[in-house]
Amino acid sequence: MSFFPSRTLALYMARMFLLRTLAVLGALVVVLQTLDLLGESGSILAYPGNGQEQLWYYVSLRAPQIIARFLPFSVLLATLITLATLNQNSEVISMKAAGLSAHQVLAPLIVASLGVAAVSFVFNERIVARATATLAQWEHVDYGPVPKQRALQTNVWVRDGAMLMRAGEVHGGGATTWLKDVTVYDRSSGALDQILNAPEARYVADGGGWRLAGGARFDVARGVRVPIGPVTIARGVRPDQFTLADVDGDSLSVRELRGAIADLKSAGRQTASLESSYYHKFSGPLSAVLMPLLGAVAGFGLARSGRLFVRAVVGMALGFTYFVADNFSLAMGNLSAYPPMLAAWAPFFLFLLIGEAVLIRTEE
C-alpha cells in the first residue's frame, strides 16, 4: 500500500534518473552553447578590443539561459532513457511481478523530479534573471564596455500626441527621473516637422514637462540645424511612462517582478503579459514533474513485442506537445487573449490529466 515499498529500489531508480538527467542536460548545453557562440562570436569580436575573455564572459551569461530552457527537455529524455532501459532489461516486469503498480514504479522518478523543479526555481531566481538582465545591457552597447551605473531602462519610446520621445537611458524615479540621449520627433502637421536632440532631459515637478539641457533642433523642411537653449516640452508625459515602459519579466526575480506589476497597476497600466510571466515562473519549473508521467508509456509493455521504440516515440511526442501548448498558452497570455492564471497553469493541469488518463487506461 506504500508508494515506496522498497527503499533500495527507490534510491536505485532515482539515482539512475538523476544521473541521466545531468548527462543529457550537459550534452544539450555543450552542443547548443557551441552553436549559439558560433552565431554570436562575430558580433562580439566586431567591437574593438574584444577577444577570448569576452567570448567566455558571453558563455557565462548565455549558458544559464540555455540550462533553464532545456532542463525540462532533459528530464523528459532522461525519463525515456531510464524507463526504456529498465523495460529492456525486464526490470519493470520484475517490479510488477513483485506487486508494484505503475504509479509505484514512477513514484521515485516523480519525487526526484520535484527536487529538480525546486533546484530549477532557485537557479532561475538567483542566476538566470541576473544573467538575462546583464546580457541585455551588454547587447545594448553592442558588446562594448558596460558603464558601472546602468540605466533602469534603455531605449524607451513615449508618445505625447503628435510628438514622439526617445530616451537612450532612463535614470532615477518619480520626480527625480532624468533622461539621457534624448531625441524628440515633432509631427504636429501630420508629417515630420522637426527633430530635437539633447544630451539629457530632467522632469520639471512644478507644472510638469521635461526640460532639455541644450542640444539642437533640425528643421526638416529647411534642412537647417540650429542649437537651442534650455526648453521645456511634453508637459503631458509622466515619469512613470519612462521608468515602467519596458519591464522584462525574464530579467527580474519573482519579488522584483511582483513589485513592478504593482507599480504598473498603480499607474493605470496594463499588466496582463507580466502577470502571465509571473505565474509562469512557478509553473515553468514544475513542468519537470510532468515529464516522468508523460514519458511513462515508454516504461511499460513487453520489450520483446518490438514496440518499445514506438512507445518511446509516443512518450516523446506527449512531452514535446506539452512544450508547444505551454508556449502557445503563454503567447496568448502576453496578447491578453487568455487570463494570466489560465495562460500559465492551464497546460500544466491539462497534460497532468492526459498523462494520468493514459497511465490508468494502459497500465492500471
UniProtKB/TrEMBL annotation:
Bilayer disposition of the protein: Multi-pass membrane protein
Gene Ontology cellular component list: ATP-binding cassette (ABC) transporter complex
Chief location category: membrane
One of the GO biological process terms: lipopolysaccharide transport
Ranges annotated as spanning the membrane: 12-35, 66-84, 105-123, 308-325, 337-360
Keyword DNA repair appears in the UniProt entry: no
Pfam families the UniProt entry points to: LptF_LptG
Full protein name: YjgP/YjgQ family permease
Organism (species): Sphingomonas sanxanigenens DSM 19645 = NX02
Record has Transmembrane as a keyword: yes
Annotated keywords: Cell membrane, Membrane, Transmembrane, Transmembrane helix
Superkingdom field: Bacteria
Localization, UniProt: Cell membrane
